[in-house]
Amino acid sequence: MSVRTLTINGQPVSATEEQTILDVAREHGIDIPTLCHFDGLSEHAGCRLCLVEIAGSPKLHAACVTPAAEGIEVTTHSDRVTAYRRQIVELLLAERNHVCSVCVANRNCELQDLAVAMNLHHVRYEPQDPQLALDASHPRFIMDPNRCVLCTRCVRVCDEIEGAHTWDVMARGRRAMIVSDLNQPWGESPSCTGCGKCVRVCPTGALFEKGATTTVRDPDFLTYLKTAREQKLWIR
Amino acid sequence: MTSDDLDTVRARERAAFAAAPCRLAVCTAAGCLSSGAGAVRDALERTAADGADSPGLRIIGTGCLGLCHAGPLLRVFRAGAPDVTYAHATPDLAAAVVRQLPDGRLPDERQLPAMHPFFAHQHPVVLENAGRIDCERIEDYVAAGGYAALQQAMTEMKPDDVIREVVASGLRGRGGAGYPTGLKWSTVAKARGAGKFVVCNADEGDPGAFMDRSVLEGDPHRVIEGMAIAGFAVGAEQGYIYVRGEYPLAVSRLRVAIRQAERMDLLGQRILDTPFSFRIDVRIGAGAFVCGEETALIASIEGKRGAPRPRPPYPASFGLWGRPTLINNVETYANIPPIIRSGGAAYARLGTERSKGTKVFALAGAIVNTGLIEVPMGTSLRQIIFDIGGGIPDGRSFKAAQTGGPSGGCIPASHLDLPVDYEALAGIGSIMGSGGLIVMDDRSCMVDVARFFMEFCRDESCGKCIPCRAGTVQMHTLLMRMTTGVAAERDLTLLEQLADMVTRTSLCGLGQTAANPVVSTLRHFRDEYMAHILEHRCPAGVCRMPRAPERAS
To answer: Do B162 and B247 belong to one domain?
Structure first.
């Protein structure tokens, strides 16, 4: 296995062949914001928050899917990408209904965290407020699409880890929706095992447990699960 | 069937061709069919059957003759006489033509002038068979020199030789981005891995574009031949043509053509009795514009949701089912047979320094001759619109032309003399695109045009990445504010910021180019935006502004 060296924000770092820029940055305590990425899942590359600059390349590169190649010089927080990230979070906040004060994920929400970290207190774009129907048909969980950011973590965890593939995306563009099975009520889904993994990976309050007053954040639980499965090691 | 057998068929067909001194070609492309070409063809056949006095007469249904607005088109070929083309042909006219043919005196009514400028200024390469062959007869294609390039490649060339000719031709991808075709072919050829694929992108989705449809409907064998040559060159044995579902006629003709080619051993196992095998399957799209993007198209062929994925890895190394995959557009493949037949260098003599060959354009909008044309690269927009297109109808004046559809930009009158090639168009903020050319007269409002294309992109965004999904929604909202007279100057700032962000951060080409119409109209027609914003007034009189604040007069 060959090893690579590169620089991130001027800091020399080393990387293995498999590591992405995001992996290496996190390893070295450099915080690149993400939303669709979740440790243990395949990459979606849809939120575009982890875009970084690489010297000599006019394009921006999604850190989550860009290999940490030999000799590249990565800049993670240029003024340009910082401004873009802020616009992306603003767009998300205007897209559906993100009213923190009445949300179960309040103070436990990755979208909220991003907005706070960016000191984003006003949204300049017109709120779309689409008024989508909530699905409370499942005995234990609720799906509120109004809070969904379409990161597809639920889709991926259900497919890749649980193997049920209950969730998928329906329609396109602004009408895109996460649906269970063939767009039927979650509670009637024949494929759902009720494992709750989707609820645990949801970055916002779109998926939550009935009766809960807060959501649980556990960013390491999938890596824990995978280590347990693959190496029979029950360690955190 | 061996290569020699194919030569025999070609010779036999050519002899039969020569024995028929008179051919009547009815345009049976979708445009003419919808204006009654079917009835014209029936009348021709009925009348010809009634009077047995017309020996040597052949009636063919041919591909798009180009002058779509004058359909149905009927062209008469006679040995030793110039061709005659009839516009707006009717069954009665068709019957009269057949009856008067033996006398050699054709009806005068509805005849197009002998050297109609629409045809005189064109240079058909891709469309060379339009009018000459019956689009549902493989023998016609073979007689016209079809499959000779495949024969030549299989019997006289090595895969490397084929790629060398394509490189020498300077051909660039006709789907829009203009990536060098030879480079793409050699990349796929060099990619390691068995089970490579050749894919033809026929998911033509730009509003107002119908180049690929016309090629598939009129000359499907040309695309099949191009793909088979590509398969031979890159080492693939399986091809897919991904056709949009809105093109049923193209699909049915393509299926007929594939069956015919299989029957003559031009597709399938051991093509022309050589060790090379290649088969083609048709896949039909379900109406998503984004599936014209290569990675989304691949996902769709695989049976997955048609959404793009980040590149790299490029399809050339990791494409369909993870195999090295060559993806080209219909028109690109259609250029391959002439390149192999006459050599890359000969092809490269056409066009400009960096854009070789010809380009097919679909003329639409405010233009007299709506239709399909083919011109050498470097032809000026003025020649295309005024000489070939016949100018702007109703005595109106030219305002702008949109190339590249929703991913392209507008070209104002000041750039009419620009030679149309990839670099020149990019230089003024537009793109070549796949060849849709929408002409707008002085009654078009450029803010409204930008709003229209933004609405298209908003509705066609797949929703995977946030900038494209939510950014197009907000840009459309801002443009709506402008066209309804409630926008303020800060809305323009927001719009420009969003346009930049969506362009730079979107995942695929759809999002990366979605803001192009906004950016290019802002570049060339900023004053119109300012009139909408500052004066709540639409200079072209298109936008009604019911919500505009009262203006002091």
So the answer is: yes
Measured over all CA atoms, what is the biggest interatomic distance in chain A, rounded to whole angstroms?
Answer: 54
Q: What is the pLDDT of residue B553?
A: 47
**Are the beta carbons of A87 and B507 separated by less than 8 Å?**
no
Q: Does A26 touch chain B (CB under 8 A)?
A: no
Nearest CA-CA distance, residue B202 and chain A, Å: 21
Same domain, B263 and B331: yes
The closest CB to that of B497, out of A87, A95, A171, belongs to A87
User: What is the pLDDT at residue B20?
Assistant: 82
| Sheet with B74-78: strands ordered across | B57-62, B22-27, B74-78, B81-86
Is A91 close to B471, i.e. CB distance below 8 A?
Answer: yes
Domain count, chain B: 4
* B463 with A60: Cβ contact below 8 A: no
- B463·A88 Cβ contact <8 A: no
* CATH for B291: 3.40.50.11540
Query: Has residue B12 got a pLDDT over 70?
Result: yes
- Give pLDDT, residue B303: 95
Token reading at B348? 């490269």
CB B199 within 8 Å of CB B242: yes
**Which ranges constitute the DSSP H helices of chain A?**
21-27, 79-95, 110-117, 153-156, 197-201, 221-231
| Residue among A128, A149, A173 whose CB faces B462 most closely | A173
Residues of A in contact with B469 (CB under 8 A): 95, 150, 173-174, 176
Class of the A3-77 domain? alpha beta
Matching CATH number, A95-231, of 3.30.230.10, 3.30.70.20, 3.30.70.240, 3.40.50.300: 3.30.70.20
pLDDT confidence of residue B53: 57
